[in-house]
C-alpha cells in the first residue's frame, strides 16, 4: 500500500488517535494501527456512512465533541 497524505502525516507526528470525518482516511490510518474516531455530527454526515468503517476494530464512530472527549478519556485510562 502506498502511504496516503493522511497516514504519512499521522505517522510523522507519531499520532496515536486520529479524529476525522473522512471514512477513507479512517480506514487507511486504522489499517496501519492508528486508532480513529470517525466524526459524524449527530449522524448527519452522509459521506460518513460506510459499513466497512463500522466493522474495523480501530475505528469508533462519534456523534459530537462530548463523545470525542469520553473516548479520549477512556483511551488515556486504558
How would you describe this protein?
This protein has 78 residues and is α/β, with parallel strands linked by helices. The chain has 4 helices and 3 strands, in the order αβαβαβα. The chain has helices at residues 5-12, 23-31, 51-55, 65-77, and strands spanning 17-20, 35-39, 59-62. Helix 3 (51-55) links the parallel strand 2 (35-39) and strand 3. It is globular and about 30 Å long. The model has no long low-confidence stretch (mean pLDDT 87).
Main features:
78 residues; alpha/beta; three-stranded parallel beta sheet; 3 strands
What is the 3D form? globular
Structural class: alpha/beta
Q: Counting H and I runs of at least 4 residues, what is the number of helices?
A: 4
Number of strands: 3
**Unreliable sequence segments:** none
| Helical fraction | 40-55%
N-to-C series of helices and strands: HEHEHEH
Largest sheet: 3 strands, parallel
Q: How many angstroms separate the termini?
A: 30 Å
* Estimated radius of gyration: 12 Å
What's the overall average pLDDT, rounded? Answer: 87
Strand percentage, roughly? Answer: 15-25%
Strand line-up across the major sheet: 1-2-3
Would you kindly provide a brief summary of this structure?
The protein has 78 residues and is of the alpha/beta class. It has four helices and three strands. A three-stranded parallel beta sheet has the order 1-2-3, with helices on both faces.
Amino acid at each position: 500500500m502506498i502511504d496516503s497524505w493522511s497516514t504519512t502525516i499521522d505517522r510523522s507526528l507519531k499520532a496515536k488517535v486520529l479524529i476525522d470525518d473522512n471514512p477513507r482516511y479512517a480506514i487507511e490510518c486504522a489499517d496501519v494501527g492508528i486508532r480513529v474516531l470517525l466524526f459524524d455530527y449527530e449522524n448527519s454526515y452522509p459521506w460518513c456512512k460506510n459499513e466497512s468503517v463500522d466493522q474495523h476494530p480501530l475505528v469508533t464512530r462519534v456523534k459530537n465533541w462530548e463523545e470525542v472527549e469520553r473516548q479520549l478519556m477512556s483511551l488515556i485510562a486504558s
